[in-house]
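Example 9 (inverse folding). The structure is encoded as follows.
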């Protein structure tokens, strides 16, 4: 656990990973959505790349820029992210989003399972949408793009 936290325990790191599950891939999009200082974002992304959680590739749409995407090891953090969302929703404040099994639209239970299909869907088979009645306090491009239901890991364009 100590060595896992060396990779993901610093402030912002898991929020960056969560946004990557939402399909965020560009530096500017992470920056405006998380409202994080650029130097800190750069530092955290570099750490995630060093630890093999995120991979950086050239952005075909913007010369000189990059895309940041989860590796297989990064995608394996989904149960960690989901467990934190569930815990935070229970003990801190209600979550802004809900998570459904894409093929049957059943809400995932606290263990991340679809009780209807008796499986634990992988992130690419999960759809996230705003919780009914939730009013976002932000209006950045990523928040706007996340207004519609989305499949996790589907690249988000702003
Ligand atoms: Zn299902």
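The amino acid assigned to each position is listed next.
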């Amino acid at each position: 656990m100590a060595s896992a936290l060396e990779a993901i325990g610093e402030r912002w790191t898991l929020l960056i990973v969560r946004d990557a599950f939402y399909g965020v891939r560009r530096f500017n999009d992470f920056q405006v959505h998380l409202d994080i200082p650029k130097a800190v974002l750069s530092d955290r992304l570099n750490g995630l790349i060093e630890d093999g959680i995120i991979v950086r590739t050239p952005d075909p749409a913007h010369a000189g820029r990059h895309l940041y995407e989860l590796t297989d090891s990064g995608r394996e953090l989904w149960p960690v992210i989901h467990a934190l969302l569930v815990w935070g929703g229970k003990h801190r404040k209600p979550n802004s989003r809900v998570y459904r099994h894409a093929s049957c639209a059943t809400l995932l239970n606290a263990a991340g399972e679809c009780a209807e299909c008796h499986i634990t869907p992988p992130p690419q088979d999960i759809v996230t949408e705003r919780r009914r009645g939730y009013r976002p306090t932000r209006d950045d491009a990523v928040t706007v793009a996340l207004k519609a239901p989305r499949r996790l890991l589907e690249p988000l364009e702003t």
